[in-house]
Specification:
Elements: E1 4-5, H1 6-9, E2 11-16, H2 30-49, E3 52-63, E4 72-82, E5 86-96, E6 105-117, E7 129-130, H3 134-153
Parallel strand pairs: 1-7
Antiparallel strand pairs: 2-4, 3-6, 4-5, 5-6
């Protein structure tokens, strides 16, 4: 199984938030945003593993800014750590008001642990990562530390 670069599976997805995704004052429900983040993490994991993937864990979910109806919402996601069958995906959500010239701002961040499954629903081995930059190596180390801390708790 050949290792892959982080760039190989990096994914960016955008959408405009609609009224059916919001409460009565126009704030988009947190669950709508988390669902969007989960979909983006799935794409990253699927591109890397070429298998169906499920969400096993969501960590460090931080709501930094509200998101409103008609905002452009963009999820940027990439792998930071790969285990045997699991993959940690960092997801960053940016929000932009298209009625102004303001730049996009970070609204949420989180780490999603995705697990690759074979046709029988059993975990399957995934390719390793090629780490090219110091930032990638540092992120990988932090991801591995998170992974080890999960294992200790279970």
């Amino acid at each position: 199984m050949e290792k892959k670069t982080i760039k190989h599976s990096k994914t960016v997805m955008s959408r405009i938030m609609m009224p059916h995704q919001a409460n009565s004052v126009g704030n988009v429900h947190g669950g709508e945003i988390i669902k969007f983040m989960d979909e983006t993490a799935y794409v990253v994991a699927r591109k890397h593993s070429h298998h169906n993937c499920v969400t096993a864990r969501v960590d460090e979910l931080q709501f930094l800014l509200p998101i409103y109806v008609d905002n452009l919402t963009t999820c940027q996601a990439h792998l930071i750590f790969v285990g045997k069958s699991s993959m940690q995906v960092k997801v960053k959500v940016e929000v932009q008001d298209l009625e102004s010239d303001q730049k996009a701002k970070i609204a949420l961040t989180a780490f999603f642990t995705m697990v690759a499954l074979d046709k029988n629903g059993c975990p399957v081995k995934v390719p390793g990562l090629i780490l090219k930059t110091e930032e990638e190596k540092t992120s990988y180390k932090h991801g591995e530390e998170r992974y080890q801390s999960y294992k200790k708790k279970n």
